[in-house]
Design brief:
The complex is a heterodimer of chains A (101) and B (153). Chain A has four helices and three strands, in the order αβααβαβ. In chain A, helix 2 packs across helix 3. The termini of chain B are close together. Classes of the chains: A alpha+beta (101), B mainly alpha (153).
């Protein structure tokens, strides 16, 4: 089906360089919500993106303190798959174009 | 395979199951979070939401199955690698629904800390808040003892 659960971990920095070269950058943004536990959000970030504990906590704290965190950037298709997976975990995830910044 | 059997206090948890099942029933036709679908196309949006809802209902089924005859006989709920992710997600979905349905009067600080002045809440709200906190405790327990990222299993 079109929205297959994303289990593949991709190195975000490698992906970013590639996409900047291509000039077509899409961002996966997670927004804050008062319900999901911090430990749960960290666990989800580690599971979905393969982040280590420190990176996952950094993004979780960005979400908590700044209301949003860009957790991944790259090609649209992969970004959509990540947004879908995060929504399966009931996080508020949105797709944004780099041009909108 | 690592497995954790949690013995719950029947007297404390059983009264919460009605409000939890009620919230889970509410979620059968609707998503816990209205998703931002990254495409305006109607068919795409419809399919996106349909798949999310199917997954949510599957998770809720796994979660509610914890509270069958074995639970009422012994208070035990079995958690393992086969059901932990579904239960984590289901707890999140039900907590979001409890908040939307019963706990809108509570500010974000109370929801995040799990601390509220119970005297300010109606009976229904008190039970919903107790269920909300119980589900958070279950999630914490799974993350602590059955973290899906634990590669040592």
């Amino acid at each position: 089906m079109m929205f297959a659960d994303t289990k593949t971990h991709q190195n975000p920095s490698t992906s970013t360089v590639t996409q900047e070269q291509l000039g077509d950058q899409w961002m996966v943004v997670v927004l804050d919500d008062p319900v999901n536990l911090m430990s749960y959000v960290v666990m989800v970030f580690k599971k979905v993106f393969g982040f280590d504990e420190m990176t996952a906590r950094k993004h979780m704290l960005e979400v908590h303190e700044q209301g949003r965190s860009v957790v991944w950037a790259g090609v649209r298709e992969q970004a959509e798959a990540y947004v879908f997976t995060l929504q399966q975990w009931h996080l508020t995830a949105v797709l944004e174009s780099d041009e909108a910044r | 395979m690592k497995r954790v059997e949690v013995k719950l206090n029947l007297e404390a948890v059983a009264p919460l199951l009605d409000v939890i099942k009620d919230a889970a029933d509410d979620l059968r036709p609707r998503l816990a979070v209205n998703p931002a679908v990254p495409d305006q196309d109607e068919d795409f949006s419809s399919e996106w939401k349909k798949e999310l809802l199917e997954g949510q209902n599957s998770d809720l089924g796994a979660f509610l199955s914890l509270f069958g005859s074995e639970f009422f006989a012994s208070g035990m709920v079995p958690l393992d690698a086969n059901n932990r992710e579904a239960i984590l997600r289901a707890c999140s979905a039900v907590r979001l629904r409890l908040r939307a349905k019963h706990l809108r009067a509570l500010d974000d600080e109370a929801l995040e800390s799990g601390e509220a002045t119970l005297d300010d809440l109606s009976d229904v709200q008190q039970r919903a808040f107790a269920a909300y906190v119980f589900l958070a405790t279950l999630q914490e327990l799974i993350v602590q003892h059955l973290d899906p990222n634990d590669l040592s299993e």
